[in-house]
Amino acid sequence: MSGAHPGPPAGPRPAPEDRWFTRRQVAAFAAVLAMAAALGTAAYQTGGRLAGTGGGAVVTAAAGSPPDGRALYAASCAGCHGPDAAGALGPALRASAGWRGADFTRAVLEGRTPDGRQLGAVMPRFAAVGLDGSAPTQAQLDALHAYLKTLP
Ligand code: HEC
What we know:
By secondary structure, the chain is an all-alpha fold. 57% of the residues lie in helices and 0% in strands. The chain is rod-shaped, with a radius of gyration of 33 Å.
């Protein structure tokens, strides 16, 4: 009974992994951090590019350069009136391209033709739905009208 081994310390012995991170855990943690940093950088760069595009558009609009009638038409009208305004779901816009500016504007904004006819409900009332994400401006309507006049 002499020379007894020292007993275990009183109280629960902490498991080794509770005391400190193992080498493996530290390495794994570092790898995750590195990956997060890489992803974060990529996301940041993408965001910067997107923000750059938006900023450019805002600057262009703010600088007062005229709206692009062709782009407006492609984005907001071509789906129904056809890529060349030759007609699809909606009629060809040859005739209306020749309307006076105020008449064309009223048709696009309020859906009313020069002879007082209400256009069918399929034709959006752009005063209500907006053009290019915001309330249509006269400059946009003029640009659209001018673009339609260039079509053969
Ligand atoms: C969702 C489909 C749709 C979209 C988008 C659309 N239109 Fe129309 N549009 C129509 C339809 C359908 C008519 C015919 C309605 C009728 O005659 O009752 C029409 C009629 C018109 C007319 C009257 C033509 C005429 O000779 O009577 C004009 C002008 C017109 N659209 C311009 C535009 C412009 C400009 C845009 C884009 C800013 C546009 N439309 C977007 C469906 C659309």
